[in-house]
Design a protein that fits this description.
By secondary structure, this protein is an alpha/beta fold. It has 14 helices and 24 strands. The strands form six sheets. Strands 1, 2, 3, 4, 5, 6 and 19 form a seven-stranded mixed sheet that branches. The relative contact order is 0.11. It binds flavin-adenine dinucleotide. Flavin-adenine dinucleotide binds next to helix 1, strand 2, helix 2, helix 3 and strand 4.
Length: 465
């Protein structure tokens, strides 16, 4: 069988690329070895984690937040099986949705494991072990990423778990040790803390959320500590020993010093993810790689003719929406259009409570680049809607070019930050200035008014402080 486009991997990068290519008239197939479509994101990533985060947040709110609003519900009882069913049902509905979209767009799902057989050819090994060769004008590698291992620590997905195991624990651990203070560790740590776990986070660096704006990360740390998180920053885990029940993690200060042991029922290894290209045969094709990632040019082409790559296997942030946008851009490029991804405006969200969202540059990045900038900040504690809903933690920070006023970065810690960040993203796509944001009428009373006030604060004319 010959296709115009054959995509390997049905994650957000691959399946979106396939849909867009089909919309543009191409004959498309996607190879996926998992039982269901949707990749990491829909099966074991974004979607199940957000289902669990939402449910655990509702549990905590019922226990602690509602009484202050005059809603007395008594002590909430956890039905973890029902919560997991909500998560599993959410995943099932989403992956079925992708299967429906494949049918609607006449995309063939080739079930099995793909290998690059020759230029323009992909071998797909089905469940029976037999290989079938398919030909395609363009082949896209969208095989995603896998959990980065912690040397010397074996993941059994029961006591020492990756994010996948942490999404399906049989009961809330009494003590959870999270290795890594990045997004995944803090999100899953938050979910289990709300369900009763004592959470200790061990991080090699002396800060949490590496890469995010420093002031935002500091505020996030304060808020998480208030919720009960214990952070061991500047520490490394040197070993995890399984005990009769649970485990003991040995940690040591990076700068040297006495080791310390942390008891845990469950240890979550969340030190990052690494590109997954195993068994593809990239080396045999002569594809250039750099630190495990497939090297591509601005049009997502590798150095092998007809071979492209998108998503977590290439450079850039490992985010579902970045993979999706690359999928759309590549399909359009292959159709002769001007597909493009603006890497300066890719929002990122940490779904802790409150949420942490950012788009564009951090203060540290602007300083390092020698860009003169002005800062406007506004706290949710001065926002009427935030007070009415008792969601006063956090702030909005707008960073604008000191001479042109063009917005270069926006950072929000606060309830609903992951939704609010998009008005900043749209503004930045249009090259907007803080004055544009400040002069845009915002409905009252909304949390988004804090974004407008932060923009006003760039020129020191916020109204409500
Ligand atoms: C716990 C967790 C939470 C996350 N939360 C978020 C979030 O909230 N927001 C966000 O933006 N990102 C989140 N991410 C990251 C996000 O899931 C990834 O960035 C995204 O899935 C990358 O998409 P992709 O298409 O590149 O690859 P993937 O989604 O990883 O899909 C790759 C697919 O390729 C298949 N495959 C691999 N090799 C082969 C082969 N040889 N043959 C056939 N099939 C193959 C795999 O089975 C897989 O289904 C999260 C990740 C995790 C683990």
């Amino acid at each position: 069988m010959t296709y115009d486009l054959l995509v390997i991997g049905a994650g957000p990068g691959g399946y979106v690329c396939a849909i867009r290519a089909a919309q543009l008239g191409m004959k498309v197939a996607v190879v996926e070895k998992r039982e269901t479509l949707g990749g990491t994101c829909l099966n074991i990533g974004c979607i199940p984690s957000k289902a669990l985060l939402h449910a655990s947040e509702a549990f905590e709110e019922a226990g602690h937040g509602l009484a202050a609003l005059g809603v007395v519900v008594g002590r909430p009882k956890l039905d973890l099986a029902a919560m997991m069913k909500h998560k599993d049902d959410t995943v099932a509905a989403n992956v079925a949705g992708v299967a429906y979209l494949f049918k609607k767009n006449k995309i063939d799902w080739l079930k099995g494991e793909a290998r690059l057989a020759a230029p323009g050819q992909v071998a797909v090994k089905g469940a029976d072990g037999a290989e079938t060769i398919y030909e395609a004008g363009a082949i896209v590698v969208a095989t995603g990423a896998e959990v980065a291992p912690l040397p010397g620590v074996e993941i059994d997905e029961q006591i020492v778990v990756s994010s996948t195991g942490a999404l399906s624990l049989a009961k809330p651990p009494k003590k959870l040790v999270v290795v890594g203070a990045g997004v995944i560790g803090l999100e899953l740590g938050s979910a289990w803390r709300r369900l009763g776990a004592e959470v200790a986070v061990v991080e090699f660096l002396d800060r949490i959320l590496p890469g995010m704006d420093g002031e935002v990360a500091k505020q996030a740390r304060r808020l998480l500590e208030k919720q009960g998180f214990a952070f061991h920053l500047g520490c490394k885990v040197t070993g995890v020993e399984k005990a009769a029940s649970g485990a003991k993690a040995t940690i040591e200060p990076v700068s040297g010093g006495a080791p310390q042991r942390l008891d845990a029922d469950v240890v979550l290894v969340a030190i990052g993810r690494r590109p997954y290209t195993q068994g593809l045969g990239l080396e045999a094709q002569g594809a250039a790689m750099e630190r495990g990632r497939i090297v591509v040019d601005a049009r997502f082409a590798t150095n092998v003719a007809g071979l492209y790559a998108i998503g977590d296997v290439i450079r850039g942030p490992m985010l579902a929406h970045k993979a999706e946008d690359e999928g759309v851009a590549l399909a359009e490029i292959l159709a002769g259009q001007a597909g493009h991804v603006n890497y300066d405006v890719i929002p990122s969200v940490v779904y802790a409570s409150p949420e942490i969202a950012s788009v564009g540059k951090s203060e540290e990045e602007l300083k390092a680049a020698g860009v003169a900038y002005a800062v406007g900040k506004f706290s949710f504690s001065a926002n009427g809607r935030a007070r009415a809903t008792r969601r006063v933690d956090g702030f909005v920070k707008v960073l604008a070019d000191a001479s042109t006023d063009r917005v270069l970065g926006v950072h929000i810690v606060g309830f609903g930050a992951g939704e609010m960040i998009h008005e900043a993203a749209v503004l930045m796509e249009f090259g907007g200035a803080s004055e544009d944001l400040a002069r845009t009428c915002h409905a009252h009373p909304t949390l988004s008014e804090a974004v407008k006030e932060a923009a006003l604060a760039v020129e020191k004319r916020a109204l409500h402080v």
